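Protocol step 4 of 6: structure prediction from sequence.
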Amino acid sequence: MLLKNTIKTLLLAIPILLLVSCSTDRADSEFNQTEFKASNGYQFNASLKGSKEVPANDSKGAGQAVVRISKDETKIHYKLITANVENVLFAHFHMAPAGSNGGVVATLYFNENPQPSGPANGVLAEGYIMADNVSGALEGDIAALVDAIRNGMIYVNVHTTAVPSGELRGQL
């Protein structure tokens, strides 16, 4: 059973990794890599799965979040990739340690048309978070959000019509 689950996970992860490495959308060309460090304390990744939700769910979906903090720590670049999820409503940064739920501190994706939107396979959202985009308990405080990311207190949550409380989750 463990081998079967491992194989399933690998089969889900390979297409996601290929999407990350092959993406050439317009937003990528606008991403100024010289502004962002790709080193410890500046780049964070999260594998998104239903089993990481609290409580866990049996979603067949998966995802990856790639987050980079700018050298001057005034903005955060994010890229959110999903596979095998449908009708995504929102994606957020939430603040809480692994195993706990917490409030929203930044919105990564918002579906303005909550009608069924179909499958979300590939880059769901990409953009920047700056002080004006920080909400909830950290409202307007980008430095506090950076600290929370570095301290493992931020998780990415993808909410869908099937599981509005969160179908996929991953701790940064």
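Step 5 (inspection) to follow. The CA atoms of residues 29 and 167 lie 30 Å apart.
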